[in-house]
Amino acid sequence: MKYLHALNKIEGVGSQKIKILLATLGTAENIWQADLATLRKVLGGDKLPEKIFFEKQNIDPEAEWEKLKKDEINVIDFMSPNYPKLLKQIHNPPFIIYTRGKLIFDEIPAIAIVGSRKFSTYGEQLANTFARDLARAGFAIVSGLALGIDAIAHSGTLKVKGKTISVLGSGIDDDSIYPRANFHLAKEIIKNGGLLMSDYAPGTPATRLTFPARNRLIAGLSLGTLVVEASEKSGALITARMALESNREVFAIPGSIFSPTSIGTNNLIKSGAKIAACVQDILEEFNFPQASETKQAVLKLPENKEEEALLAILCDVPIHIDNIAKRSDLTVSTISATLMMMEIKGWVKNLGGQNYILL
Hints:
The protein is α/β, with parallel strands linked by helices and 359 residues long. It has three domains: 1-69, Orthogonal Bundle (DNA polymerase, domain 1); 110-293, 3-Layer(aba) Sandwich (Rossmann fold); 299-358, Winged helix-like DNA-binding domain superfamily/Winged helix DNA-binding domain (Arc Repressor Mutant, subunit A, Orthogonal Bundle). Helices cover 46% and strands 13% of the residues. It has 18 helices and twelve strands. It has helices at 2-8, 15-25, 28-33, 36-43, 47-55, 61-70, 85-88, 121-136, 149-159, 183-191, 210-220, 235-245, 263-270, 279-285, 291-298, 305-313, 321-326, 332-344; strands spanning 74-77, 96-101, 110-114, 140-143, 164-167, 195-198, 224-227, 249-252, 274-275, 319-320, 348-350, 355-358. The protein has a nine-stranded mixed β-sheet, with helices on both faces. Strands 10-12-11 form a three-stranded antiparallel β-sheet. Strand 3 (110-114), helix 8 (121-136) and strand 4 form a beta-alpha-beta unit.
């Protein structure tokens, strides 16, 4: 493992190259000890064999392995029984991955929640609600620690003591965690039984090129991907596309046609993504046994017929008070007064413009 890790620190030595080298040379240690002529014979060409041969002169596998142990970073290779089963099914899965934390892959089912870095109040509320309720139902929530919807999904999971996996487009050592604004969130994920994961060696900085590769791992670890909010060219749409390519489910939350952060999600739905109007839509898609129990757990016991009527109408998607009136036999004034009391109880939230959502 220490030689695999050392090889992974050399840029350009990806999964396919490691498999080719192992098939010929047998072990990672043999690869490490190979001379330039041998590397050229196995890989062909000049650039990569020379890169491996000369860069390994500056890497001490033993010292690098000790750094991993000191930082409590685990290395899992493709042949390990601890390698996530779903990830093995994607195209060109990473040969080795790095993790920090105690969560074991495949211990509980996982679902990804992703979205825009620039988010609305609507997106914030829904990301929090879906993460919270899916975690309560027994899912591990997978996301990318990015600013915006990703961070909200992680935080929402932690609020209900759920399990969450953060896949980074950088190394997972303290110095490499990106974005730095979410450094403390990353530490909270580890502290609360979650997991940081990456296929990049510790010490690897995040770049604009590392994130698309990161997105494929988010999709690959998960049974399905939920896109909460996404602009027309959002990176979240890359994750959704990669989920589809891996034959995974893709869900999208519909949004206003006037909102730039809903263009991507609305287009996904037009292209065939499944609408997630509430958490139950996702749970039922997977025939999740706790679906009905979860729905009951988050509902409050109504104290009068007005509250009972509104609880039957309100959902995870904002509803305007006029639409509530159309769907009930109550007057707007009665609805307004009842919603005010329900908001005081912490059952609903006014998102502004008389749009309400069930908490």
